[in-house]
């Protein structure tokens, strides 16, 4: 019993608060928010928000009145330490909040580029609304951007920047884009599409320095000796989970805050969810740390259920999406360890799915402009069913029959 204090008001933190109230939780709920905005959706920051002109309100999950009506106390500021013995959280403001249960939903922060000039104002990152807002403000005065990192965020931004009329170069150390996350078939499709749009993608290279004159970026030098002119650099080289608050309180951490399959830390009165949580996964084996809206929201719902008496292990099926220019990538399942890829549909027709198998077991589906296949995959996994590689490859095979 007692108040639930939630540290971090991103996707996970917001959802725990909302789900607790939905489940009838009646004690105090506080959401500690270190960003100067009402809780908002992050995905549009590298996509629609940069492209458009809608204000920050367009991103908010709920208006302020929702929090008042639901008695969710939004508390501005940062949590700086946890007194586990006293069941209290200390905020930077000096305020102290007693908790019955503490939820760490601290998310992740950008991995910073360790290069000279990387801290100049023309070198930008994308994680929070203020980052996206700053980019939107300066882009009209920029003509050439070098994007460092061809992960989801780098490519989403690159596509948007190109649509906005900038010259765009993308640097990637791996031999293909999104290499850690998607199959070679999907990487190749997106490489071709971005190149068609006029984006120059450089694979197998690294930025070795950022050049500047009078505090203004003039270009980027590459590990292969080339130099690319630029007046803007956008960095998307991955994130680091925010584990320090947990670590300093003596909680078990590794590449994330370690939680069991119930999302409980090594202290039963403290849980961790979302991007910061390294969770035990009976389904996938070992531990997982995922960075997705699905993961943060489903963690939040699972935890809110536990805190209101419905204790179940976390066992949701992962899914994800990325919008890049006119193409929509959607993924269902986790493809780690696949040994066979079967295509359904045709990359040349700009609509296909890559079904990833380990032996005969379907691990995941990556769909490009095939929303139907993606929804099929999510329903199939939800039913704990599979289809054979032959069925997946055969467009004559009616997917619905596998769900009946
Ligand atoms: P976050 O949403 O990061 O929230 C954590 C919050 O905690 C932050 O506000 C942080 O400032 C705050 N915080 C940290 N420490 C403290 C502290 N000590 N005190 C108080 N507050 C603190 N996912 C998808 O599935 N699809 C997409 O298309 C997609 N696009 C994305 C695009 C961008 C640009 C970014 C950055 C992410 C995208 N993601 C996408 C990932 C998704 O947004 C994250 O996985 C999700 O936000 C994780 O939610 P979270 O609650 O764990 O962390």
Task: List the SSEs and their pairings.
Elements: E1 4-7, H1 11-22, E2 29-33, H2 48-51, H3 64-69, E3 72-76, E4 79-83, E5 88-91, E6 96-98, E7 101-104, E8 108-110, E9 123-125, H4 129-138, E10 144-148, H5 152-163, E11 167-172, H6 184-196, E12 200-203, E13 207-213, E14 216-222, E15 227-229, E16 232-235, E17 239-241, H7 244-248, E18 257-259, E19 270-272, E20 277-280, E21 287-288, H8 293-307, E22 319-324, E23 327-333, E24 340-346, E25 351-358, E26 361-368, H9 371-382, H10 389-393
Parallel strand pairs: 1-2, 1-7, 2-3, 7-19, 9-16, 10-11, 10-16, 11-12, 18-20
Antiparallel strand pairs: 4-5, 5-6, 8-17, 13-14, 14-15, 20-21, 22-23, 23-26, 24-25, 25-26
The protein binds flavin-adenine dinucleotide (FAD).
Flavin-adenine dinucleotide is lined by residues 7-13, 32, 34-35, 42-43, 45-46, 78-79, 105-108, 126-127, 153, 242, 245, 274-275, 291-294, 296, 320-322.
Write up what this structure looks like:
A hairpin with a 4-residue loop joins strand 4 (79-83) and strand 5 (88-91). The mean pLDDT is 97. The chain has helices spanning 11-22, 48-51, 64-69, 129-138, 152-163, 184-196, 244-248, 293-307, 371-382, 389-393, and strands spanning 4-7, 29-33, 72-76, 79-83, 88-91, 96-98, 101-104, 108-110, 123-125, 144-148, 167-172, 200-203, 207-213, 216-222, 227-229, 232-235, 239-241, 257-259, 270-272, 277-280, 287-288, 319-324, 327-333, 340-346, 351-358, 361-368. It folds into 3 domains: 4-109 and 240-307, FAD/NAD(P)-binding domain (3-Layer(bba) Sandwich), CATH 3.50.50.60; 112-237, FAD/NAD(P)-binding domain (3-Layer(bba) Sandwich); 326-402, 2-Layer Sandwich (Enolase-like, domain 1), CATH 3.30.390.30. The chain has 10 helices and 26 strands. The protein is of the alpha/beta class and 404 residues long. Helix 1 (11-22) packs parallel to helix 8 (293-307). The strands form 7 sheets. It has a 5-stranded parallel sheet with strand order 3-2-1-7-19. It has a 5-stranded parallel sheet with strand order 9-16-10-11-12, with helices on one face. The longest helix is centred in the C-terminal third of the chain and has 15 residues, at 293-307. The site of flavin-adenine dinucleotide has 35 residues, from helix 1, helix 8 and strand 22.
């Amino acid at each position: 019993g007692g108040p639930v204090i939630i540290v971090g008001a991103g996707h996970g933190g917001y959802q725990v608060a909302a789900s607790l109230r939905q489940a009838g939780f009646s004690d105090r709920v506080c959401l500690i928010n270190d960003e100067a905005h009402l809780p908002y959706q992050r995905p549009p920051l590298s996509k629609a928000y940069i492209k458009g002109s809608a204000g920050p309100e367009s991103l908010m999950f709920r208006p302020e009145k929702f929090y008042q009506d639901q008695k969710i106390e939004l508390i501005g500021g940062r949590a700086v330490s946890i007194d586990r013995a006293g069941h209290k959280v200390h905020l930077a403001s000096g305020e102290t909040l007693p908790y019955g249960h503490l939820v760490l939903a601290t998310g992740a922060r950008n991995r910073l580029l360790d290069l000279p000039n990387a801290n100049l104002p023309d070198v930008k990152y994308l994680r929070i609304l203020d980052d996206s807002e700053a980019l939107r403000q300066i882009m009209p005065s920029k003509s050439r951007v070098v994007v460092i990192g061809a992960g989801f965020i780098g490519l989403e931004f690159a596509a948007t920047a190109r649509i906005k009329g900038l010259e765009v170069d993308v640097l990637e150390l791996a031999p293909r884009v999104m290499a850690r996350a998607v199959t070679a078939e999907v990487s190749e499709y997106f490489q071709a599409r971005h190149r068609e749009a006029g984006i120059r993608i450089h694979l197998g290279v690294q930025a070795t320095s950022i050049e500047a004159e009078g505090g203004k970026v003039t270009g980027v030098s590459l590990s292969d000796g080339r130099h690319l002119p630029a007046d803007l650099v956008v960095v998307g080289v991955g994130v680091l989970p925010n584990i320090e608050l947990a670590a300093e309180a003596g909680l078990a951490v590794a590449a994330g805050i370690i939680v069991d399959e119930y999302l409980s830390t090594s202290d039963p009165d403290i849980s961790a969810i979302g991007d910061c949580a390294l969770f035990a996964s009976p389904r996938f084996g070992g531990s997982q740390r995922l960075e997705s809206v699905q993961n943060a929201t489903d963690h939040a719902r699972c935890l809110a259920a536990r805190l209101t008496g419905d204790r179940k292990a976390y066992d949701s099926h992962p899914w994800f999406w990325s919008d890049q220019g006119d193409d929509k990538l959607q993924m269902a399942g986790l493809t780690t360890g696949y040994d066979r890829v079967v295509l359904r549909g045709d990359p040349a027709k700009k609509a296909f799915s890559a079904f990833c198998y380990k032996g005969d077991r379907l691990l995941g589906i990556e769909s490009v402009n095939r929303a139907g296949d993606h929804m099929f995959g999510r329903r199939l996994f939800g039913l704990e069913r599979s289809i054979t590689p032959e069925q997946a490859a055969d467009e004559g095979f009616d997917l619905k029959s596998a769900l009946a």
